[in-house]
Specification:
The chain is an alpha/beta fold. It has 3 domains: 5-135, Response regulator (Rossmann fold); 147-311, Rossmann fold (3-Layer(aba) Sandwich), CATH 3.40.50; 315-452, Helicase, Ruva Protein, domain 3. It contains 20 helices and 14 strands. The chain is flat and about 90 Å long. It binds adenosine-5'-triphosphate and magnesium ion.
């Protein structure tokens, strides 16, 4: 561990020297400054772990130094030194963010204890700041702290260092490609390429040559040699999206390449060694795809060494609002708008909606909401109509999906909101009659309308 360094600030050279001797003996590196201004200069050019400062000094005193540091968001721990009998000024300094004070004349043990405490505090603050940043940025670009997603993060960390094939399963827009990239980036292959190919978007004849490459004259139009995605991904990762849309013959060829770790370009019989990790994705259930003859069983077993099943957004509703805010901020930045907040009823709708298009649908909707609202506050009128109807997926229509997924408060609020809406519709917007129908006072109906609408 490198030496921790401490800046001693005092206008009296003797005091600085005394502290220097003590601190050097304790094993710290010591820098000196004669007043606050000197200290600020020293801090600008040296990495310092702790400041010990006198209070009364010419030019810039201890309190002013402390205030300047905190105004600059410099959270370096500061210990103030005070003479016996002037402890109040030290307590003052604590209000401005000093972490401790020591009283002159010093007891060496007291100095050592205070220094150790302050350095520990500084470390914790640094770590907290780092963790806070991590949470804000999300884990490897992922937003969402639901337990379902935590499990996904753990799985990514488990499988990344290995060479095994991975099959990612999940509905459209759940983040399959994001997971594939995260596995690549966390793997020893991160320096080589992550090559992605969408099997559904490319016709079979072309897919084969895209994957394996071809030699000159292999087919009409092949007027020069071309390497395929497999070779391109050598040393790295090949992501085969929508694997079940790949032609059966190509699946057989893929399996052979995976087993033998070699390939021949189309129209060539030169064998080329490839070292590629394959990650495949599908929005179908692979076992059903085998039954439907969309996926070869032998290939499935080869790829399915490790499976990641991404949960749909409606099964992790806690992630909806953090994701919404993240996308709102992202798109607000693009348009140079200033995003503030989501109004409570709009937030309620977002949480209740079934999200058939998952995270991608949420992102698109938030981009649109930013455009419609001009940034600032997102309200219900900035959301599309279908979300307001709270469309439940058909298999769950007998019981409201929200009732199972969202927290109790959200569920109660949603139900309340809906009943009020119905009562108002039935009574032609007559608040007094609606209140009667709901068996609540008119006053509390007003209150709820204000809250929800
Ligand atoms: N947890 C998440 N945090 C942040 N962004 C996410 C998250 N999940 C998905 N996204 C974003 O949502 C979009 C859709 O994700 P992605 O393309 O990975 O989904 P997919 O499952 O591959 O979808 P499809 O099946 O339609 O190809 C991307 O822009 C991705 O960055
Ligand atoms: Mg995808």
């Amino acid at each position: 561990m490198p030496l921790q360094s401490i800046l001693v600030v005092d206008d009296e050279a003797k005091m600085r020297r005394l502290l220097e001797i003590m601190l050097t003996q304790m094993g710290y590196e010591v820098l000196q400054a004669a007043d606050g201004l000197d200290a600020i200069e020293a801090l600008a050019s040296h990495a310092v772990d702790l400041v010990i400062t006198d209070l009364r000094m010419p030019r810039l005193d201890g309190i002013s130094l402390l205030r300047q540091l905190r105004e600059q968001h410099n959270e370096i721990p500061v210990i103030v030194v005070t003479a016996y009998g002037t402890v109040e000024s030290a307590v003052d300094a604590m209000k401005y963010g000093a972490s401790d004070y020591i009283v002159r004349p010093f007891e060496i043990d007291a100095v050592e204890a205070a220094v150790q405490r302050a350095l520990r505090l500084g470390k914790v603050q640094r770590e907290n700041r780092y963790l806070r940043q991590e949470v804000e940025q999300g884990w490897r670009g992922f937003i969402g702290t639901s337990s379902a997603m935590q499990q996904i993060y753990t799985q990514i960390e488990q499988v990344a260092p290995t060479k095994t094939g991975v099959l990612i399963q999940g509905e459209t827009g759940t983040g399959k490609e994001l997971v594939a990239r995260a596995i690549h980036n966390a793997s020893p292959r991160a320096q080589a390429l992550f090559v992605s190919i969408n099997c559904a978007a490319i016709p079979s004849e072309i897919l084969e040559s895209e994957l394996f490459g071809y030699s000159k004259g292999a087919f009409t139009g092949a007027n020069k040699e071309r390497i395929g995605k497999f070779e391109l991904a050598d040393g790295g990762t090949l992501f085969l999206d929508e694997i079940t849309e790949m032609d059966f013959n190509i699946q057989a060829k893929l399996l052979r390449v995976l087993q033998e770790r070699t390939l021949e370009r189309l129209g060539s019989n030169r064998t080329i060694a490839v070292d590629v990790r394959v990650i495949a994705a599908s929005n179908r259930n692979p076992r059903q795809a085998i039954i439907d003859q969309k996926l070869r069983e032998d290939l499935f077993y080869r790829l399915n060494v490790f499976t990641v099943v991404l949960p749909p957004l409606r099964e992790r509703r806690d992630d909806i609002l953090p994701l919404a805010r993240y996308f709102l901020e992202k798109h607000a930045r693009e348009f140079a708008y200033e995003f503030n907040d989501i109004e409570a009823d709009a937030a309620l709708c977002l949480t209740a909606y079934a999200w058939p298009g998952n995270v991608r649908e949420l992102e698109n909707m938030m981009e649109r909401a930013i455009v419609l609202s001009g940034g600032k506050t997102i309200a219900i009128e900035h959301l599309p109509c279908d979300i307001l109807e709270d469309k439940a997926p058909p298999q769950q229509s007998s019981c409201d999906p929200v009732i199972h997924a969202a927290g109790l408060n959200t569920q109660v609020e949603l139900l309340e909101r809906r009943l009020i809406q119905e009562a108002l519709a039935k009574t032609g917007d007559n608040k007094a009659k609606a209140a009667q129908l709901l068996e609540i006072s008119e006053r509390s109906l007003w209150y709820k309308i204000k809250k929800y609408f």
